[in-house]
Amino acid sequence: MDAGFDEDSGRIATVTAAKTYFHDEKGHKLKAFVIKGDILLAEEAADGFVCATFISGKGKVTSGYLAGDAVEISEPEAPEPAGWAGDWTTGEWQNLTVKRGGKPGWLQVEGEAYWAASAEAARNGGVNIGNVSSEGPVQDGVLGFTQTVDGSYKPFSEEARDNFDCAIQLKMIGTNYLAVEDSGNCGGHNVSFSGIYARGKVSFDP
User: Using CA atoms, how far apart are residues 184 and 164, in angstroms rounded to an integer?
Assistant: First the structure.
């Protein structure tokens, strides 16, 4: 369970140009663009371009290559716990809310995730649901816990997948994105909270 948690996942690209367009891998300019001040997830840079991904507050993902001189790449430090607070989304299928926890430096995480075999299945009520609600401390820039029946704190464990426990860990990428991974046991069949979230909230409405 390492997607979003590897050592190269902490870079961001801040747009410094007034406006710059995405390009495909062959260098063709696309219709999508970003404007000055937008924050993106940055990946590899080569031949004067930076591979980057922008996620809107509604969970819409736009990826492509941006001119290297139109962005500034940085590796921001993890924010203090208060900087995690707010609503986070990948779109209507995954939403999380982070709040101040019951102890100093702790954070509470609540949210819902959904999965359906198709849009038609979702409209007909064929939706699998997952819920998470727990809290824990931020340690080395990562918030992790294993959900318990009585609500007591239990650290995140790599063994949770084999033990059929719902475990989840979260890591901020700058102040605009949140990387999330779970154990695959946090809801019904195929339900997952794993992904990269942006600030925002989208109601589930199949």
Answer: 8
Residue 81, classed as helix, strand or coil, is: helix
- What distance in Å separates the CA atoms of residue 198 and residue 206, rounded to the nearest whole number? 21
70 backbone φψ class: left, alpha, beta (φ>0; ψ -120 to 50): alpha
Pairing of strands 61-67, 49-55: antiparallel
Would you say 13 and 41 are in contact if contact means Cβ atoms under 8 Å apart? Answer: yes
Q: What is the pLDDT of residues 44-99, one digit of tens each?
A: 888 899 999 999 999 999 999 999 999 999 998 888 999 999 999 999 999 999 99
Cβ contact 58:200 at 8 Å: yes
Alpha carbons 57 and 68: distance in angstroms, whole number = 24
Could you tell me the pLDDT band of residue 9, with boundaries at 50, 70 and 90? Answer: low
Q: What are phi and psi of 13, to 5 degrees?
A: -120, 120
CB within 8 A of 116, min separation 6: which ones?
Answer: 122, 126, 127, 128, 206
Q: Which of 70, 90, 57 is nearest to 181 (CA)?
A: 90
**Residues facing residue 50 across a β-bridge:** 45, 66
Nearest residue to 183 (alpha-carbon basis) of 153, 128, 151, 144: 144
